[in-house]
Amino acid sequence: MSNHLFDAIRHAARPEATFILTTDGRSWTYGDMLAHSGRIASALDTLGVRPGDRVAVQVEKSPEALMLYLACVRVGAVYLPLNTAYTLAELDYFIGDAEPRVVVCAPAAKEGIAKLAAGHGAHVETLDDKGGGSLIELANGETSDFSDAHRGPDDLAAILYTSGTTGRSKGAMLTHDNLLSNAATLRDYWHFTADDRLIHALPIFHTHGLFVASNVTLLAGASMYFLPKFDADEVLRLMPQATVMMGVPTFYVRLIQHPGLTREATANMRLFVSGSAPLLAETHRTFHAMTGHAILERYGMTETNMNTSNPHDGERIAGTVGYPLPGVSLRVTDPESGKPLPDGETGMIEVKGPNVFKGYWRMPEKTQAEFRTDGFFITGDLGKIDERGYVHIVGRGKDLVISGGYNIYPKEVETEIDQMPGVVETAVIGVPHPDFGEGVTAVVVRKAGATIDERAVLDGLKDRLARYKQPKRVIFVDDLPRNTMGKVQKNVLRERYAGIYAPAGASANG
User: Fold this and answer.
1) pTM of the model
2) 384 and 255 in a common domain
3) 323 and 413 within one domain
4) Per-residue pLDDT tens digits for 141-182
């Protein structure tokens, strides 16, 4: 029977070719991948998992965890990866909402999760980061000759929950063709072949590490160095044998700070990709000056996989996310009316294509609200398209600052401050203000030893930005709060500084 996604993976797999190499010396061929995922799929079948059932997974990164994802695809289940940082209270919501047939967790977490799972009718198995656990023990007694379940292009392959910073988390439903079409497009657009060797230091509970890095590698029949986490020493050690790296901006910042980053160290590499959070233009320029490589920045999200990419062969412009990918339609619209805007104007980014998700799990009203009648998905990201067709991301719609009736796009203010001597990076937020509704507030990280202060920042912006865009306050911090994928958590900053404009004697909560 046909299994839309795994049939394509199987077609690209040369059994004798290397698929995964780990830092502890283990090696997996594509033949091993087919056998191990087959045994785990057989184990899931034995546990009663049927096509359409959900399998929730909260485990540390390991080759076996990746095999579990592939096994779910093969058995026809809907894979539900969960951030390893989620608490029991958060897991209770996800398990209750998704109603998985099976939950797979780390052995140390089994006791707490089993109590939650029991309340929702789910069975619990374990998997550790060394390839052990009850699920693997069960799989070792199963056959590797598994007959893949029939799954068509529109059948669900995964549910990924959004972060839920503006309400309860939503489960984005991704189909077999959402994942396959996007991975095939990226494979071709980024010129991936079986000769490529990817440095994979990303987590695999997220779109970037799981569906971009892993699926693209699989569809190309390429190999990857599978690191448990990012380690600059280890990454630089691997570069002479590798050809590609995918990372978040933090990876590149750390590499720039490493004395081992040179043109010689990166001579064998053909491509560096960055995503999941905005890459500072300064990071792009510094990395290029040190290595001769221009980082390729792309833009995607949980609901859509990847939407745009800087070109593989053309100019990669710092501060942009490139062109819409083949097959993806992208437009910028007025956030209120939905009317398309001309190039150069800032508005809401909307996308349409085979990469765009099916909707939010058990939220038909929310799904309907996020799609236009002509099928375009409203991303919630603000951006513009320049005269060359490159897409610029200005920020999230929820991060827009409205001060004194004026709309201020944080990215514009951040870019100006980031260019000042002594500044590492900036996050601009809107904080409640008694006179203006919201006060433009800049939270700045200084370079070590820098003496730049609030007055210097404000003076530097006087002739650079309109008065209404200039910050009312500049706050200096050692680091900006980030999530596991390196995105700055502006919601945390807004909560932290909610009371700074409160009248004297008033409480932070007004």
Assistant:
1) 0.88
2) yes
3) no
4) 999 999 999 999 999 999 999 864 445 789 999 999 999 999
Number of CB atoms found within 10 A of residue 2's CB: 12
Whether residue 410 sits in one domain with residue 391: no
- Give the count of beta carbons closer than 10 Å to the beta carbon of residue 151: 25
What is the H or E stretch that residue 424 is in?
strand 423-433
Residue 212 placed within a domain: no
Residues 181 and 327 grouped into a single domain: no
Distance in angstroms between the alpha carbons of the first and the last residue of the chain: 63
Residue 505 region by backbone torsions, left for phi larger than 0, else alpha for psi between -120 and 50, else beta: left
Examine the domain organization and report whether 158 and 299 are in the same domain. Answer: no
| Segment (H or E) for 63 | helix 63-75
Q: Is 468 exposed, middle or buried (0-12, 13-18, 19+ CB in 10 A)?
A: middle
Number of domains in the chain: 3
Structure tokens that stand for 204 in this block:
């695999």
How far lies 239's CA from each of 17, 244, 245, 270, 508, in Å? 20, 8, 9, 10, 50
Nearest in space to 135 (alpha carbons), one of 126, 145, 124: 126
The DSSP line for 262-287 is -TTTTTT--EEEE-SSPPPHHHHHHH
Q: Are the beta carbons of 203 and 159 closer than 8 angstroms?
A: no
Within a domain: 237: yes
- Domain span at residue 455 reads 400-497
Which residues, including other chains, have CB under 8 Å from residue 428's CB and lie 6 or more apart? Answer: 401, 408, 410, 411, 413, 414, 417, 440, 441, 442, 443, 471
Q: Please check whether residues 276 and 414 belong to one and the same domain.
A: no
Query: Do 374 and 277 sit in the same domain of this protein?
Result: yes
Say whether 12 sits in a helix, a strand or coil.
helix
Q: Is residue 208 part of a domain?
A: no
Other Cβ atoms within 10 Å of 508 Cβ, number: 11
Instruction: Summarize pLDDT for 26-74 with one digit per residue, the tens.
Output: 999 999 999 999 999 999 999 999 999 999 999 999 999 999 999 999 9
Does an H or E element contain 255, and which? helix 249-256
